[in-house]
Amino acid sequence: MPQSPAPSKRRLFTAVILGAAVVVALLVGGTVWVGGQLADQLGAPGIPRATGSGPCGSADAVNVELVYAAQSVRACTRRQPDCKNPNPSSFTFDNQLRSSSRRYILFIQFDAVFPADMPQQTVQLDPAALLRPKGPGQSAPLDHAGPPHAIIQVTPRDPTEGGYTADSGTIVLSSTHGIFTGGIDATFSIGSRPDRPQPSTQPSPVKIAGSFTCSAQ
Question: Which of 46-60, 132-146, 202-216 has the least mean pLDDT?
Fold first, then answer.
């Protein structure tokens, strides 16, 4: 009678099959992950994706409430985003947020740079000061010796719409060892981001309030 393969050969065969299955699973998972990353960046090139999952809470580094006429939406991201100084006279924060219904892009810019350690200061929103027209006829440069100004813009995704610009309000900003914390309290008018000028036909939020933490280290 033919004899069954030796136990060592059976174990080797089983190990080869399991190894091949693991490789296939990793390849498929990697392809899905890369596809998700590419899809995420199609409507928000260069803007970090939202992190975390589930309802927004105290563990989220950015946690804001968008108030509409008939509802309110919590939007957030778990991992602490970076904030940057793209030039010597501005300080910028730009990140995607998750919510229970869709994603958002939160953009905040100040017309000043700030030290790594700074007590709380209240910065007034002034979109007219930061969204000046470009060209020979633009208004005079901002006086950076005076108090800083800020702008807040929110762009809904899934699908991507025109952005909304807060026209009044404040950001209470402080920093410790290069970690910046901000408290937002602002109201909106309808408007589009300069780099996404398409008009929005959806209801505009009327208020945004919440907090953010970002790192400039």
Answer: 132-146
